[in-house]
Inverse folding.
């Protein structure tokens, strides 16, 4: 009599009939527990899924899967744990990269803002008649007889490195300072009041707004005098009678901060001028006009790289001029034959060497020795 579960025709011949025979050989030591099944890379489709057309028998498990049919509350499988660990590592690496980028010590810090220019412009009134004549004769009889012509009169000092600036930095600063003096004191268009760009391009961008206002709306308020930035003749009063301007002076430098190099310039410029309405032949009736400029120029490393400067201060004496004339917009020289004007404070000699005497008032007196034919004073 057959037992339920046996084949109808009995057990086939040559077929093992027991579990012990099935588990023989190499499969005897393999235990197919639940973790082993979940970790398998292949998974059999369900009967419903296998009914579809061209359905495959098995599918590959994703590493993100935790075990296919396992309940959501069960412990994630090994593949899922590896996937979560990989995501965590990527997120951590990205966060570290962003943090290091924000904290990079080699990112340059923003440069400091340049301070506004402070300027003092003092007209020097003559105490004697203003001499006239051909420019060569006037220069030969003046203290400027031994001065060089133009940029040749602006000589650089011996160069040495400072604590935080190399000798190359110092040379660069001095050459920019010389360029500024040439453009602001010797350029014919700047002197005539028809150009400002040659000076403007050398200034720190933080000072451009102040410079522009000084050119368009000059004022003697100590901040917005056009003649604090450059030498400009009032075009309605006088023009150059000789383009060969006589120049003499000195430059000095020092490190005033770890990242700031300061150059001090002290130069006297002597111009031969004639009346603005006269013909060029009227140069025989020219006169001399003298301007002494003491400037403090500052440079940081960005300024040196961009070949620009910060004009920190300017002290300017210029004459002969009338004390009643406002020199903020442009100088108004007293021309050949002009009489002495209002007497002001103690006389100032723009040719004298050493530290120029600061005038207490808005007008000074031009020393007699400063005029053509007067006693020669030592050059600065």
């Amino acid at each position: 009599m057959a037992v339920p579960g046996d084949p109808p025709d009995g057990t086939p011949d040559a077929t093992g009939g027991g579990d012990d025979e099935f588990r023989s050989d190499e499969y005897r030591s393999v235990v197919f527990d639940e973790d082993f099944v979940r970790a398998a890379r292949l998974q059999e489709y369900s009967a419903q899924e296998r009914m579809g057309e061209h359905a495959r028998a098995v599918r590959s498990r994703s590493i993100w899967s935790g075990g296919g049919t396992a309940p959501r509350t069960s412990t994630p499988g090994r593949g899922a744990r590896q996937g979560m660990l990989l995501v965590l590592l990527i997120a951590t690496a990205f966060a570290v990269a962003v943090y290091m980028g924000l904290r990079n010590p080699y990112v340059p810090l923003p440069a400091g803002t340049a301070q506004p220019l402070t300027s003092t412009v003092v007209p020097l009134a003559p105490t004697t008649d203003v001499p006239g004549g051909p420019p060569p004769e006037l220069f030969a009889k003046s203290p400027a007889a031994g001065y060089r012509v133009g940029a040749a009169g602006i000589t650089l000092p011996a160069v040495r490195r400072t604590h935080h600036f190399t000798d190359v930095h110092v040379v660069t600063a001095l050459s920019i300072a010389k360029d500024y003096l040439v453009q602001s004191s010797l350029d014919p268009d700047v002197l005539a009041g028809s150009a400002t760009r040659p000076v403007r391009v050398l200034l720190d961008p933080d000072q451009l707004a102040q410079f522009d206002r000084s050119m368009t709306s000059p004022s003697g308020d100590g901040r917005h005098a056009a003649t604090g930035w450059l030498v400009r003749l009032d075009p309605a009063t006088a023009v150059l009678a000789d383009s060969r301007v006589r120049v003499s002076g000195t430059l000095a430098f020092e490190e005033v901060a770890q990242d700031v190099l300061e150059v001090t310039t002290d130069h006297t410029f002597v111009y031969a001028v004639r009346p603005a309405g006269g013909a060029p032949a009227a140069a025989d009736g020219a006169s001399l006009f003298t301007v002494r400029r003491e400037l403090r120029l500052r440079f940081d490393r960005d300024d040196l790289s961009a070949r620009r400067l910060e004009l920190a201060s300017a002290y300017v004496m210029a004459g002969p001029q009338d004390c009643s004339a406002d020199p903020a917009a442009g100088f108004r020289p007293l021309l050949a034959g002009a009489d002495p004007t209002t007497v002001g404070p103690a006389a100032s000699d723009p040719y004298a060497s050493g530290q120029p005497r600061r005038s207490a008032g808005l007008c000074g007196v031009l020393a007699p020795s400063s005029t053509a034919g007067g006693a020669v004073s030592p050059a600065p």
Remarks:
- Residues 201 and 308 are 7 Å apart (CA to CA).
- The chain has two domains: 31-102, 121-370.
- Strands lie at 42-44, 58-60, 118-126, 148-149, 238-257, 260-275, 287-299, 310-319, 347-348, 364-366.
- Residues 31-102 form one domain.
